[in-house]
Amino acid sequence: MEAFQKKGAELEKSLLEAKKKVSEAQRRVKDLDGASSDQAKKELEEAKSQEKQLRKEERSWEKKVEEHRREEKKMPWNVDTLSKEGFSKSVLNVKPEVKEETEEEKEEKHKTFVEKYEKQIKHFGMLRRWDDSQKFLSDNPHLVCEETANYLVIMCIDLEVEEKHALMEQVAHQTIVMQFILELAKSLKVDPRGCFRQFFTKIKTADQQYQDAFNDELESFKERVRGRAKIRIEKAMKEYEEEEKQKRLGPGGLDPVEVYDTLPQRLLLIHQ
């Protein structure tokens, strides 16, 4: 999982770099457009050729990123794709066998659980003190499960997209609380409802190694949430721009804005 996430991050970075190069090439073409000297015209043709090549490279990276995202969507648990698989190994160090469920079973289980306990999950996500969290889970032990962790992950991304950064960080903390409890349960091969008190005892008694692992995972998780939110926003903006473009299309399918942007500089000056 860690290697998969690293590959995704590298692909996203490469795509952003490709987009930046295309943008720079477009600016150069625009600056040279309308040139009169032979040398400038030659530079313009070279700039257009370079832009075409960079656009081709950009599309190639976009395709690779999309393929990676499709593979990611096939992964069963949202919380797993945003949590480092290895963080518990140095602290909890055991990986028990897990009974597999079908995708349909997981989806139906998650949907039913959220419909019934959404209000309680949100309340847990907003708690700040260890003691308050422990008491709330003691009163509502049914919340100690994968479904709660998955919902909190989605909640974090939604909050970041809405630019509610402080709230996102708060809910992220509770997400990692739940994830650590679940990992502890796996290591002990017990129902997570029967061991969450052990997590709070350990985290509150200043076990430095455990606290460091918790804090490291929390910071990494928040960065991944920000990355996911950014991707979602960029996708939404791209879809919005495409919709606006479709509304503007004139005769022959031409976009007036694109036509205007490609006019030589001297013509633009006449119309200003």
Automatic annotation (TrEMBL):
- Give the quaternary structure: Forms a complex with Hsp90.
- Functional note: Co-chaperone that binds to numerous kinases and promotes their interaction with the Hsp90 complex, resulting in stabilization and promotion of their activity.
PANTHER family per record:
CDC37-RELATED, HSP90 CO-CHAPERONE CDC37
Q: Where does the Cdc37 Hsp90 binding domain lie?
A: 83-244
Species source reads Clarias magur (Asian catfish)
* SUPFAM superfamilies (UniProt xref): Hsp90 co-chaperone CDC37
For molecular function, the Gene Ontology terms on record are: heat shock protein binding; protein kinase binding; protein-folding chaperone binding; unfolded protein binding
The cross-references to InterPro entries, in alphabetical order and at most eight, read: Cdc37 (IPR004918), Cdc37_Hsp90-bd (IPR013874), Cdc37_Hsp90-bd_sf (IPR038189), Cdc37_N_dom (IPR013855)
Subcellular location per UniProt equals: Cytoplasm
Q: What's a BP term from Gene Ontology annotated to this protein?
A: protein folding
Gene3D superfamilies reported for this sequence: 6.10.140.250, Cdc37, Hsp90 binding domain
Region (Disordered), start-end ranges: 20-75
- Provide this UniProt record's keywords sorted from A to Z: Chaperone, Cytoplasm
- The molecule here is called Hsp90 co-chaperone Cdc37
Name the GO cellular-component terms: cytoplasm
Tell whether Chaperone is among the UniProt keywords: yes
Name the major location: cytoplasm
Q: Which Pfam families match?
A: CDC37_M
UniProt domain Cdc37 N-terminal: residue ranges: 1-90
Q: Does the keyword tRNA processing apply?
A: no
